[in-house]
């Protein structure tokens, strides 16, 4: 859940997912101060752009951003008294109702480590017409032949995989690495000892294993939206571990965004 304040109307909007919020809130407006954000427990968020907005005097275009913690900004609780109204939503009938604590992810970590691509037209109360149910594998075919350039863990726990061609895969859920069909490592191993001399550094091991390898096949499981990435004998799986939160997101250079939603659904933007 993400809270977004439309500063020009002084209206608080409530979005079920960070993806919905960032599709609705265009990058141009965000950069111009048109939106303020808070996560599901009311902590302030900042928009961090990794693809700048485009302005050339005749045309403008929204870039891409992700939401990151902003410890220097006021919490939602401290800001409520200055907010004029709340938009229609199924969660909070009034502004005063927002004073309670919204739902948390099972790990207690907000799912704000996602990327936005918002160069689409907004429609009040629903996602834009570019959002569709996954009907084919056109987006997965774009990933085939791309090579792993970098793997890092963002603040908040997201495992971000950068591929050649401008593609990025962000795993919010449990991931596991298989080698020749045998389980080698999972994200839940992070910090464990397992009789070793030092704790497991799961993402570092994942990076050391996959860096430089080429993706040869992509599979999405029906019913669960589990994502499986094949690098020859190396296989990386993003396993959905929530019925309500996104498990993974794939972002492409042309504006394509594929999201593995809670409940086993997959939607594609652009």
UniProtKB/TrEMBL annotation:
Instruction: Tell me what organism the protein belongs to.
Output: Luteimonas rhizosphaericola
| Upper taxonomic lineage | Bacteria, Pseudomonadati, Pseudomonadota, Gammaproteobacteria, Lysobacterales
The record's section on InterPro entries has:
DUF6188 (IPR046179)
Q: Name one Pfam family in it.
A: DUF6188
Lineage top rank: taxon: Bacteria
- Tell me the protein's name: DUF6188 family protein
């Amino acid at each position: 859940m993400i809270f977004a304040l439309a500063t020009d109307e002084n209206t608080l909007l409530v979005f079920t997912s960070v993806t919905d919020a960032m599709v609705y809130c265009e990058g141009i407006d965000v950069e111009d101060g048109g939106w303020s954000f808070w996560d599901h427990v009311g902590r302030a968020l900042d928009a961090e752009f990794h693809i700048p907005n485009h302005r050339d005097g005749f045309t403008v275009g929204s870039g891409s951003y992700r939401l990151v913690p902003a410890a220097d900004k006021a919490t939602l609780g401290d800001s409520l008294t200055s907010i004029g109204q709340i938009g229609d939503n199924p969660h909070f009938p009034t502004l005063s109702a927002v004073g309670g604590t919204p739902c948390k992810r099972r790990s207690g970590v907000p799912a704000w480590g996602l990327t936005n691509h918002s160069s689409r037209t907004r429609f009040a109360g629903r996602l834009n017409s570019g959002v569709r149910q996954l009907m084919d594998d056109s987006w997965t075919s774009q990933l085939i032949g791309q090579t792993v350039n970098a793997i890092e863990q963002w603040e908040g726990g997201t495992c971000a995989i950068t591929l050649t061609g401008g593609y990025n895969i962000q795993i919010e859920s449990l991931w596991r690495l298989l080698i020749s069909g045998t389980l080698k490592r999972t994200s839940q191993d992070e910090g464990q000892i397992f009789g070793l001399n030092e704790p497991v550094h799961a993402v570092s091991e994942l990076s050391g294993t996959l860096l430089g390898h080429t993706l040869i096949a992509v599979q999405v499981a029906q019913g669960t939206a589990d994502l499986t990435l094949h690098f020859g004998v190396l296989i990386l799986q993003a396993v959905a571990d929530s019925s309500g939160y996104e498990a993974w997101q794939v972002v492409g250079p042309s504006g394509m965004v594929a999201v593995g939603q809670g409940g086993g659904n997959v939607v594609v933007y652009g």
